[in-house]
Every structure is written in C-alpha cells, then in structure tokens.
Amino acid sequence: MPTAVDDPLWVGVDVGTQSLRVAVVDTSGRLLGHGSRPLTSRRGRAHPGGRTHEQDPAAWWRAFGEAAHAALDAAGGTRTVGAVALCSTSGTVLLADRAGAARGPALMYDDARAAGEERRAAEAGGDLWAALGYPMQRSWALPKALWLLATADAATRRAAARGDLRLAHSADYLAGRLVGGPVNTDFSHALKTGYDVETHRWPTEVLDRLGMPLAMLPDVVRPGTRLGEVCAEAAAHTGLGQGTPVVAGMTDGCAAQIAAGALEAGRWNSVLGTTLVLKGVTSTRLSGGAVYSHRHPDGAWLPGGASNVGAGSIPSRYLRGDLARHDAAAAAYEPSSAVSYPLASRGERFPFVRPDAEGFLLGTPRDDADGYAAVLQGVAFVERLSYEYLAQLGARVDGPVTVTGGGSNSRYWTQLRADILGRPLHRPAHPEPAFGMAVLAAAGTGSLTITARRMVRRAETVEPRAAVTARFAAPYGRFVEELVRRGYVDATATRAAA
C-alpha cells in the first residue's frame, strides 16, 4: 500500500563488527534507503586472560555520518524522520565522559581478556546469575567493565566513582553523539552488564561486592523510550534533521528478531550464520542452562540459544568451490550414508551445554557429495533437537518459523531444513538488524508487536516435502541416540525423537 508523502520515515542503525549499516523505512515497511560503511578492528593476545578485540569509537561516528547520508540520499525527498534507533553487538563497552566522548577504545563483544574478572563476577553474583539463567562469561560486559576499572589509574577510578566517567555500550555512545551528551541505556544492552531483567534494577549488592560504583552505570529504560533529540552538530554530520527523536534500541540479535517478525508467543527465528542461533518468544522466562532470555519490550520474554554448529561447520574445501554445485550434488543423498554432528571445534552451548563435546561421524560417506550432505543434514538435526529441547522447557514452538542468516541464502539447505523439521520455513523480506531498529523506532513506546505486523513482510515460504521428512526419521534417531550414549543429552531427547 502506498504511503502518503507526509507520513514520517523511520531510521534504524546497526553497529556491527565489520560494518555500520543504516536503513530508512516508511510506515508500511518499505525499505527506501540503505547505507553501509566498513569498520576495522585491532585484534591480539596482549593480555594473559585471552584474545583481545578493540575498535575505535570515533571510527563508528565517522562511518555513521557517511552511511546515514547515503541512506537518506537513496530514500530521496524531504519527508520528516519520525525517530532513529540503534542496535549494536551485545557486550561491547567503553568508557565515556560527561560530554559523551570516548575515553579509550571499545572492548568488543568477543574480547576475552577479563578472565580474572569473570571469576570474580561469577563468585560475587553466582546465585543471581543462576536465577536469571545467564551464567557469567568473560566476554560479557560486566567482566570487561571490571577490567577497565582494575587497569585504570587512580584519577580514572575516582572519576568513575563520581559518575564523571560512565560505562557505555556501542549504541549508547552513538546515541549520545546524536543528542550531544550521555544517554540512558536499554534493558537489552544492559543484560550482559549484569542488569537484573527480572526485577528491573542494577543488583547493587553484587556490584558493591565487586567494587563497581553505581554512579558509572547508566540508568536503564525500555527499548523505544525517547533519549533525546538530534543536536545541530549531529544533524550536520548525519543528515538527520535537528530535533529528530532518538529512542533506545536493543542488541543486534534482538534487532534481527524484530526484523524477522518473531515477536509473538510460539514464533521463532533461526539464524544460520557461522553458528546456529534460535530466538523466540515465551510468556514466562524459560529456566534452562542452555537458554537465556532478554525482556520483550511488550512485556513477555525473548529466549534464545546459540549452537556451535552452523555454516562454519562446512569444511573449507567446499567453500573454495561452487556451493550451488555442491548443493545440487548433495540432493542425491537424502539421507546421507553417514550421520554427522558437525562441530567445527570442541565444545557446545545449545541445545545442551558441554564444553567437552566433540563432533562425530557415524558411518562412511560414499563420496565427497555424500560427505557434504552429511554436514548440511547434521546442522539441521541440531536445529530440530533445539526445538524439541525448547518444547521440553515449556516453550510453545508451534508458531511460524522464520529463517535468516547467510546459510539461509542457500535455497537447497533451507528446503532440507524444512524437510527435517517437518514444517514450513518463512524468509522475511528485510532480515537486517538495521531494519529491525527502524521498526522499533516506529513503535516507540507503543506495541512493538503490532508495529512489526504492519511493517515486516514475508518474501518466501519453503514447504516441507512429506516423503523426504519421513526418510530422515531413522538417521535423526541415530543422531540423538549417539548424543545420549556420549552423555551429552538425556534419554528424554530420545523419546522426543522417536
């Protein structure tokens, strides 16, 4: 349906790892403009805790200005922007002063230097983290914030205690640059900083034990809450009109879930990238070691889990060739002669937590195409087991399933996943997190679910082939039985697979 020329536009921003992306969307969900600029990182092993990963926040701001101008120019016209919202990688943090300027590099979402601080945080808040269902990890924001304090000089620590220096997530930093000063954060970005999403408060008793001054932490608001307006300097830098509302965003994973339209109980989004990530909606918070939950802006919960299998499980020899040709050859092996659990490296996070888990191959593929087919099918087996695990936890999994991520660009693999799951899979028209933030910007503090119904469009539905689904019953049973035999899952999974 065409949009009236006086209807506002909505801008979403995604601060990724390799690029910053801006989307301009109209009220009906049409993508009118898109801009992107690359980002670079500094990686190393400078600290005994683990690998380091940093980015320069000033580079985000430069990229934002260029990408925003490109997106707004592509959208054309002079229509007003109703609001802008930003998402960023979960767990990326930096220190910023009262003017909003960065005081050092950002420690990225996968920076693993804070090993000692992880242990301290785990000990100080173990009961709380267990109750909330998210065990502390060194790459999370709280251990990194503790590391920043522990390695700072005395003057910096005093400034943090006074609140003259504040912890900022990536999206907070850029929102602050937009409005001309520090802003509140949202409860999605705050989760990995230790925020209690159950009671909506910073756990002061845990933070006191850790020596973390509450004054350095931002206030926390619901996503969609107005943070301020675009200031004159930011308007000139980005092309956004001065006075444009800036609203609180969410993490990039939640933003992708919004873009997929998976915002009602029973709906799920499977993101098949390097790893396989499932995100959905439940009316109550799930309790399970392999799942942790964000809060839904509309009041429910957004549980999710990330497996270590995915497109990264495909051996490099196939990636150097023509994947479409490999897909066509794999279609001759449904099912494969072998049953694969294609872990790319040791350890699994979902649908079970086993740091010692190892991949396996039952049987011998007849040729290279058969081996490739076993990998694709193995990833789909993990996806099926994941939905069964979620159902065991009490989640509804009977709603529509959307598929996003680079692996979902393979038409054959998507068909295979639909067959093994035995259910239709839907592709959203614009699965990018920046689009999801434009939807959130349009919703503001109103219903995100209702807004997404209007703006999120479906591009394609892939139906399962019943005859093929039946063929995979036996190999899937062997897959689950082997997981049980190795002690990775219990016998209830075998009964679910029967």
UniProtKB/TrEMBL annotation:
One of its GO terms (biological process) is D-xylose metabolic process. The keyword Magnesium does not apply. Keywords: Carbohydrate metabolism, Kinase, Transferase, Xylose metabolism. Residues 40-50 have a biased composition (Basic residues). The keyword Transferase applies. Residues 320-443 form the Carbohydrate kinase FGGY C-terminal domain. CDD domains: ASKHA_NBD_FGGY_SePSK_AtXK1-like (cd07783). Residues 10-258 form the Carbohydrate kinase FGGY N-terminal domain. PANTHER family: SUGAR KINASE (PTHR43095), XYLULOSE KINASE (PTHR43095:SF5). InterPro entries: ATPase_NBD, Carb_kinase_FGGY, FGGY_C, FGGY_Carb_Kinase, FGGY_N. Residues 33-54 are annotated as: Disordered. It holds the Pfam family FGGY_C. Signal peptide: none annotated. This is Carbohydrate kinase. Belongs to the FGGY kinase family. One of its GO terms (molecular function) is kinase activity. It comes from Virgisporangium aurantiacum.
